Amino acid sequence: MRLPSPAAFSRGKQQSRPVWRAVTNRGTTKLDTMTSPLDAAAARARLLELIKELAVVRGKVILSSGAEADYYIDLRRITLHHEASKLVGQVMLALTDDAGIDFECAGGLTMGADPVGTAVMHAAVDAGRTVDAFVVRKAQKSYGMGRQVEGPSVEGRKVLVLEDTSTTGGSALTAVEGVRKAGGNVVAVAVIVDRDTGSKERIEAETGVPYLFAFGKDELGLS
Questions:
Q1: How remote is the C-alpha of 205 from its chain's centroid?
Q2: Among 74-88, 114-128, 134-148, whose mean pLDDT is lowest?
Q3: Would you say residue 169 lies in a domain?
Q4: Angle in degrees, 0-180, between the axes of helices 40-50 and 84-98, rounded to the nearest 10
Q5: How many CA atoms lie within 13 A of 92 on its CB side?
Q6: What spatial distance separates the first Cα and last Cα of the chain, rounded to whole Å?
Q7: What is the mean pLDDT of residues 197-206?
Q8: How many domains does the chain have?
Q9: d(C-alpha 200, C-alpha 179), whole Å
Q10: What burial letters (b/e) apply to 16-34, b meaning 16+ CB within 10 Å?
């Protein structure tokens, strides 16, 4: 049987290259498509391209910490982007694997960390692994169940605290405190982009766990 070319099944720009395989079922043959995830190096390279293109905004801005900077890294343009969000999960999962960090839950302080935790959860599922996501509120609820950490329970479980980027480390530290109060065992803090403003040193000193980052600001062409 002559198989039609992939071009016959697709029109327009593709986001990823389909892999074609023949599937036999009760004597008939048909084509099945599946999207192959990029390898770790390719995913990291593509994510870096997208961060440079979409997330780096130049000009005087006031950061959430109150500090002034001449550029802003708007990573929500990445973590909520149709292509980049999947790459975020793959890159952060590879980052922690390379560092030998084993964890069962991933998340951080709402709202910057929310899509990062979800991306890691989905990347883990794609890799045949079980990782739950969670959300840390800025303060414990005064109603309902009175929780600060929302989602599947983190109690007694190994937890990776995530953030998109950090200037002073304050958001990550709030998340670590909330997770520990909920009984979680924080094993590391990881961010997509490190601004090289002292977050690593502060977080490691105050939490006693490793601080990991996927990209440094030098890789983004920022000084």
A1: 23
A2: 134-148
A3: yes
A4: 130
A5: 35
A6: 58
A7: 96
A8: 2
A9: 19
A10: eeeeeeeeeeeeeeeeeee
pLDDT at residue 10 is higher than 60: no
**97 Cβ neighbours under 8 A, 6+ residues apart:** none
Q: Are 78 and 54 in contact (CB under 8 A)?
A: yes
Range 18-29 average pLDDT: 38
181 residue type, one letter: K
The answer to whether 191 touches 164, Cβ cutoff 8 Å, is: yes
Verify that 45 and 142 share a domain, yes or no.
yes
In-domain check, residue 4? no
H/E element, 124:
helix 114-126
Predicted confidence band of residue 186 (pLDDT cuts 50, 70, 90):
very high
Assess whether 26 and 60 both reside in one domain: no
Distance CA 197, CA 209 (A): 18
Per the DSSP assignment, residues forming a β-bridge with 62 are 68
pLDDT band at 81 (very low <50, low <70, confident <90, very high): very high
Give residue for tokens 């975020």: 88
